[in-house]
Design goal:
The complex is a heterodimer of chains A (213) and B (253). With 213 residues, chain A is an alpha/beta fold. In chain A, 25% of the residues lie in helices and 31% in strands. Chain A has an eight-stranded mixed sheet. Chain A is globular, with a radius of gyration of 16 Å. The two termini of chain B are 17 Å apart. An eight-stranded parallel β-barrel of chain B has the order 1-4-5-6-7-10-11-12, surrounded by six helices. The chains are: A alpha/beta (213), B alpha/beta (253).
């Protein structure tokens, strides 16, 4: 028999590296059943059962901030060593990639075999801002119960490209299909903002917190 | 696929939500927290929230009221008013903004647009342009809540704003704002055609058909309005169902 929902509260740390809407993310995680800390301390990463890397900003500044706050090594220990599930949101997802050309060429955490590419400004309005539908491509625990065609909120100028199609668990379409959700092992990323995507976003975050990943 | 965004614009003055007419006379329409709850329950696509006197009063945005509002709203928030440094942007993002609006400071110090875009990403930076028509000279950019003429021509300024790295432009027709007489289609079309970043059209919506005309006539992908929601019985769900009937792709509520 499973415990009532309000008793199972997983420990979630939202990584504070000075980039973005930490409080919106934390508030939503707590509604979705997490016990939340917003922190840049190794101890809180060790405490966590789930780690969320949020982010609004530009790629090079974000990597520099992770470095300045000495978060790179603790994050690597948790994700590569202890295999804790980590979810990157928007810029946080982009940081999972090998590389991004935003502002200037910068290396990312390299947890997913993918890199960032800019949308083509010649053929459409960039950034891609607003609500868009996703299509499920590969099974992913985050997307369980999230219907094909659900709407999520996007704000981005770059999109993730992987030569391993099996990692792309959902796509959306803006001019062409692009990666909306990616998963490689215990590392997950959403190009959209689940914390701003109302009911579908809530389901996805709850999956990340509640499922045995 | 591009779904048209429906964006209520909410304005703050002295800790209260208010609504102006042509940037001038205003009416009190509620408390930030209550307003936040109302819009949250309506599942709108996105909200613009402006502290409209911050610049004139030469102060930082009213973080306390903004946070009160943001805490109630699990939806995309674009926040502005008095944004003139990266520290202010950082704080607004921290208390719940997804994007920030820059207006007067962009004119005073255009390099600020680039600084902000390089630090926070273009997708985060919305430049708001308040436009007024003068006979003989066309549309001019006004700043400081419509108090200050700049001599800048609107389309030229919109192009520069894009060149300097803004991710979006919000264009407001001062003459129409709060009048509920319909959007200024010439103005919006000219800006929409001049740039390739998304444009949020604002100022003048009074009837549902005003929105449909705007979208059909200008290919606008983001429509802002406020009086329509505050002073009529139209709710976002009704507006969207009307637009759907008019074959406009919108996210169903």
């Amino acid at each position: 028999m499973s415990l009532p929902r309000d008793i199972v509260r997983r420990r979630v740390t939202v990584v504070d590296y000075g980039m973005g809407n930490l409080r919106s993310v934390a508030k939503y995680v707590s509604r979705a059943g997490g016990e939340v800390r917003i922190s840049a301390d190794r101890a809180d990463l060790e405490w966590a059962e789930r780690i969320i890397l949020p982010g609004v900003g530009a790629f090079p500044d974000a990597m520099a901030e992770l470095e300045r706050r000495e978060l790179i090594n603790p994050l690597r220990d948790m994700v590569e060593g202890e295999k804790k599930p980590l979810l990157g949101i928007c810029l946080g997802m982009e940081l999972l990639a090998q590389f991004s050309p935003e502002v200037r060429d910068t290396r990312g955490m390299g947890w997913v075999d993918a890199e960032m590419k800019p949308f083509d400004r010649a053929s459409m309005r960039v950034p891609h801002v607003g609500w868009n539908q996703i299509t499920n491509r590969n099974p992913c625990p985050l997307l369980e119960g999230v219907e094909d065609g659900s709407f999520f909120y996007f704000v981005h100028s770059f999109h993730m490209v992987s030569h391993r199609p099996e990692l792309v668990t959902a796509t959306s379409r803006y001019g062409h299909d692009f990666t909306a959700v990616i998963q490689q092992g215990n590392v997950y990323g959403t190009q959209f903002h689940p914390e701003k995507s109302q009911s579908a976003g809530f389901l996805l975050l709850r999956n990340f917190i509640e499922k045995d990943l | 696929m591009s779904f048209v965004r429906l964006i209520p614009v909410l304005t703050l003055k002295d800790g209260r939500m208010i609504k102006t007419i042509q940037f001038d006379q205003y009416r009190d329409v509620g408390h930030p927290r209550t307003m936040g709850k109302v819009y949250d329950s309506q599942d709108v696509d996105e909200l613009v929230f402006l502290d409209i006197t911050a610049t004139q009063e030469n102060r930082a945005p009213d973080y306390e009221s903004i946070q009160m509002f943001a805490e109630e709203c699990a939806m995309p928030l674009t926040i502005g008013g008095g944004v003139k440094s990266r520290d202010i942007i950082r704080e607004l993002l921290n208390i719940g903004a997804d994007k920030v609006v820059i207006n007067s400071e962009a004119v005073r110090r255009p390099e600020f647009i680039t600084e902000a875009a390089n630090s926070f990403g273009s997708q985060c930076i919305v430049v708001s342009i308040d436009a007024k028509r003068y006979s003989g000279s066309g549309y001019e950019v006004l700043i400081d809540g419509g108090y200050e003429r700049t001599g800048l021509e609107v389309v030229e300024w919109a192009k520069e704003v894009e060149r300097r790295g803004a991710g979006e432009i919000m264009i407001t027709a001062i003459d129409r704002e709060g009048t509920m007489e319909g959007y200024d289609l010439d103005l919006i079309r000219s800006v929409q055609d001049a740039v390739s970043i998304p444009v949020i059209a604002n100022g003048g919506a009074g009837l549902l058909v005003d929105l449909l005309d705007l979208i059909k006539e200008t290919d606008a992908t983001a429509v802002a309005c406020s009086s329509l929601f505050l002073f009529t019985d139209n709710k976002p769900i009704k507006v969207k169902s009307f637009l759907q009937t008019g074959r406009v792709p919108v996210r169903p509520i």
